[in-house]
Amino acid sequence: MVQAEAVKVKPSEIDPIDMTDPALYSGDRWQEPFRQLRQHAPIQWVPESHFGPHWSVSTYKPIVHMEALPKLFSSSFEYGGINIALDAFRHLEGEVRRPAFIALDPPDHTLRRRTVAPSFGPSEVAEMAAEVRERTAAVLDALPIGEAFDWVEKVSIELTTGMLAKLFDFPWEERAKLTRWSDLGADIELQRTSDGLAVRNSALAEMGAAFADLWKQRVVNPGKDLISVMIQSDAMDHMDDDEFAGNIILLIVGGNDTTRNTMSGFAYGLEQYPEQRRKLETNPELIPNAVQEIIRWQTPLAHMRRTVAEDTDMFGPEMRRGDKIAMWYLSANRDEDVFDDGEAIQLDRPNARRHLSFGYGVHRCVGARVAELQLVVLLEEMAKRRLRVNVLEEPTRVHACFVHGYKSMPVELSRY
Fold first, then answer.
1. Pairing of strands 387-391, 324-328
2. Is 95 exposed, middle or buried (0-12, 13-18, 19+ CB in 10 A)?
3. Residues 84/192, Cβ–Cβ less than 8 Å
4. What CA–CA distance (Å, rounded) separates 166 from 192?
5. Span 234-274, pLDDT tens digits
6. Is the dihedral of CA 286, 287, 289, 292 positive or negative?
7. pLDDT value, residue 88
8. Is residue 101 part of a domain?
9. Contact 196, 82 (CB under 8 A)
């Protein structure tokens, strides 16, 4: 059994709470249960849940420790991967495993990550800035003032899908497919039934065929896009079909769902905190920090999953080899010991950048700089036009415990 210096947590003082219940998220009712867990059961064994038995980790410091020990707390697809659903329904007909580099442990993870990481480096992101700004300006200028529209569809999806199309050099007129594939690839509720799996597998087979065609084109005529980068890499040029599809899903979901749902979180969150919205409108120099705070407050991926690779009691409770762990970023980003009044948006929060929304350690989101660029530019272009988003009614939210986001949000724009 592994024993090491780490954060010891108190034993659970309350009955198990199943935070994998999708209704908590579609109904926006997850805040109080997580507060109870942080206070009374920071690490809790949940013997029965929507996705089977697992450890539920709801506070900041244990999650950081787990993320820093990838050999002990594994991300490998061989053990179940990076979300809590991936091994819960292996018995279902049609279950297909698509490994991606995020679902690998070092050193394999390191080699594949190094392939794509340069595409998201500081100089590469700087080169994207002008085009991102031009595209953002065009989207905003096409929006009506004083008329209702869906912010998710017209802004969040349009901007993030456009960025994905550019990163992959994907046919621009077909870019809506990227959104559909991303939604189905990240929908863990579809994995609960054979029918759902069939829908998901059909869509991802379509995606795999489309990207296989792009692969063939780039072999002959390579560019600077992500497909060309993979082709030219010793670590990724020999992927089988399932690994190739898994990595494409990862890059699409990572580049789409996270940024898109934070853009929607910006609109919804500032409606809930009008005094913070006014502060931003009168102090646009707050925008870089405001982006970090909104990323923290929204937390576009509610959890990441790890699997215990060796028996350990470093946190107090005995975790056994093979145990599944849900690391709840959504709760950790509200941990009262780290973020004062973490339920609230504070755009000048001094430690907003400490959020875990992009993960921590070796698996920290490789595209974080691109996400931050898109969000900063959106807020800057809104400020230039003195545009305010007014939410007209409660949004329709994603019914799942993985992607924490919005399906639709009726709004109208006004000027301040």
1. unpaired
2. middle
3. no
4. 33
5. 766 676 777 777 778 777 877 777 899 999 999 999 999 99
6. positive
7. 59
8. yes
9. no
CB 152 within 8 A of CB 411: no
345 part of a folded domain: yes
The token duo for 139 is 């989207």
Query: What CATH number is attached to the domain comprising 365?
Result: 1.10.630.10
List the structure tokens of 370: 């691109």
Give the type of residue at 254.
G
Asked whether the beta carbons of 182 and 389 are under 8 A apart, the reply is: no
CA distances from 407 to 93, 98, 131, 285, 378 (A): 29, 25, 26, 30, 19
In SS3 terms, 285-317 reads as HHHHHHHHHHHHHHCCECEEEEEECCCECCCCC
Type of residue at 252: I
The token duo for 177 is 């497919």
10, part of any domain: no
- Inter-residue contact 59 to 332 (CB < 8 Å): yes
Total residues belonging to the chain: 416
Picking from 225, 203, 255, 226, the residue whose alpha carbon sits closest to that of residue 98 is 203
pLDDT 10s digits, 11-64: 888 999 999 999 999 999 999 999 999 999 999 999 999 899 999 999 999 999
- Is 41 inside any structural domain? yes
d(CA 353, CA 372): 11
| Residues 6+ away with beta carbon under 8 Å from 71 | 105, 106, 309
Q: Residue 341 — φ and ψ, nearest 5°? A: 50, 55
- The total of structural domains in the chain comes to 1
- Residue 31 sits in which domain range? 23-415
